[in-house]
Amino acid sequence: MLHRPSRSRFLPLRGLRCHVREWGPVGAPMVVMLHGWMDVGASFQFVVDALAAREGPSRYIVAGDWRGFGGSQSGPAGVAVDAFWVPDYLGDLDALLDALSPGGPVDLLGHSMGGNVAMSYAGVRPQRVRRLANLEAFGMPATHPAQAPKRLSKWLDELKTPARLRDYASLAEVAARLRQNNPRMAQDRSLWLAAHWSVQKADGRFHVLGDPAHKRTNPVLYHREEVVECWRAITAPLLWVEGDATDVAKWWGNAYPRSDFESRLAVVPQVERHVLADCGHMLHHDHPEALAALLQAFLDRE
């Protein structure tokens, strides 16, 4: 399997050493790609390859690792992180764009958690985003103030026990876990991504490149009304893409009906919608060629 070569480097962002992966010539039209929860920037390799197959190395693509994922620090050296906050993700993204493109807007793409951050950012900093692509970032179920005491209590209880992630005996086991998460993922792709999703440590085991604190209950309630107002302020054209096999009810049941999401998306002024066949939540792994075709048409449109 051939891959478009990438470059790996680190940037100081808000006091943290953060890792970014780059493809293509600096100075070409820029696309910044934001990965989802428990993922890494290298996850976009397959769609980067598919774009290059269509148009050559005509774009400068950057995919950073969010704080606490991949090669990026979770927090200041030697300081344990108790939780991760959306405002920090927004601050990190703002700092990343200041470093990459201080003089102009960029094309911004986000998957899942990364898409949720991208959507809010595009409303808060509309002048920084030329075009916006959202891959399966539905947001979260609405919360209510009455949920706060139980949520905070659960978080306090979890702080008493160190958070842990499972480790694996081999890269093949890591790849098998990736395919368990996404049964549509091709074996060769899972084996390639396993080497970027994990690292072998001194104990000989392969450890996922994610801070275990991400698994803790988030003590901050998700405020639907605030998020919707950010979405309403988006001025960039939005490309919304989802897989035909995605069922939001499997994640949240009745807590987040599809009608609620549709009402949120309806506030965004310019939306182009697509559903990719035979794709689930990880559609950039399932059918990167079809996704690349949509992205090329969308990003090139005047």
Assigned CATH architecture: 3-Layer(aba) Sandwich
Average of the residue pLDDT scores: 95
- Contiguous low-pLDDT stretches (5 residues minimum) are none
Number of strands: 11
Spatial separation of the terminal alpha carbons: 34 Å
Q: What does the largest sheet look like? A: 8 strands, mixed
Strand content: 15-25%
Name of the CATH first level: Alpha Beta
Q: What is the assembly state of the chains in this entry? A: single chain
Radius of gyration: 19 Å
Overall form: globular
Helix content: 25-40%
CATH topology label: Rossmann fold
What is the count of distinct domains?
1
Please write the string of helix (H) and strand (E) elements.
EEEHEHEHEHEHHEEHEHHEHH
Give the strand order, joined by hyphens, for the main sheet.
1-2-4-3-5-6-10-11
The CATH superfamily is known as Alpha/Beta hydrolase fold, catalytic domain
The class by helix and strand makeup works out as alpha/beta
Number of helices, counting only DSSP H or I runs of 4 residues or more = 11
